[in-house]
Amino acid sequence: MRGLILYESRYGTTEDIVRRIREELKGVETLPCSKLSMQNIEKAEFLIIGSPIYFERLSKGVERLLKDTSFQEKIKDKPLAIFTVSFGRHKRYLSLLKRFLKRENILIEYQFRGKVWIFDRRKEEEIYEFVEKVRRFYGDR
């Protein structure tokens, strides 16, 4: 496994985005944070961490994982890509993720729009833009 996408999704939008990213990137696995084992992290060359934003906060599952000291230790040298999914595209939402992570490890950050608009051409373009950024850093086999 080259990459691992960790995420939570309450209503399905984040999961839809993760599924499309996985379809575009080869060698990437996906796991909800609640199903993660530390062995999955050890195998991954890079991590992508995604969280929906509810009432100006990260999902509880993502926040719980990011606060876990054993998780912090396992990812301390891994390159990271992060994203949030919300109605508004506010930089402060990415800062909710960044406060738990080593900033020098974050190579890519992105904000996706939530269900205000269901999948359409703009959503596909956003996903493609994110995937291309990931490919630039990690390649695609």
Furnish the topology, listing elements before pairings:
Elements: E1 3-7, H1 13-24, E2 28-32, H2 38-43, E3 46-54, E4 57-58, H3 60-67, H4 69-75, E5 80-86, H5 91-98, E6 106-113, H6 121-138
Parallel strand pairs: 1-2, 1-3, 3-5, 5-6
Antiparallel strand pairs: 3-4
Helix pairs in contact: 1-6
Q: How far apart lie the N and C ends? A: 11 Å
The helix/strand order is: EHEHEEHHEHEH
CATH superfamily: Flavodoxin domain
Please identify, by name, the CATH architecture: 3-Layer(aba) Sandwich
Q: What is the count of β-strands? A: 6
Percent in strands: 25-35%
Based on CA atoms alone, the radius of gyration comes out at 14 Å
Query: Regarding CATH, which class?
Result: Alpha Beta
Q: CATH topology, anyone?
A: Rossmann fold
Number of domains: 1
Q: Main beta sheet: strand number and arrangement?
A: 6 strands, mixed
> What fraction, in percent, of the residue positions are helical?
40-55%
The 3D shape can be described as globular
Structural class, from secondary structure content? Answer: alpha/beta
Mean pLDDT: 87
Q: How would you name the oligomeric state of the polypeptide chains in this document? A: single chain
